[in-house]
Specification:
With 106 residues, the chain is mainly alpha-helical. It has three helices and two strands, in the order ααββα. It has a two-stranded antiparallel ribbon. A hairpin with a 4-residue loop joins strand 1 and strand 2. The chain starts with 9 loop residues before the first helix and ends with a helix.
Length: 106
Amino acid sequence: MTTERPGAPAALTRVSVRTRLTAVVAVLTGLAFTAAGVLVYALESSHIESEVRDQIEQEIAEFTELQAGNDPATAKPFTSVEALIELYPGAQRARRRRAAPRLLGR
């Protein structure tokens, strides 16, 4: 007496039900993890893009504010772009040092 069903492919009857179920569960788990990964990637890339855009806008606003002020070396408006660009990183560090204690509640 054979266990093969008439009309069933011979390859499927050689694989046990347990093996087929395990394969189906593995494939479905892989698809679920892939979908979750794609979703997290899409959400995080959007969030990172938004953060970068906000930081760039803040830097431009700070640079524009510095440009509207006076050169500390001469107490007159800036006369060259080079002086403004040389001063900008130092002004950024000073501004962040003043902001740090406020963030820490001091």
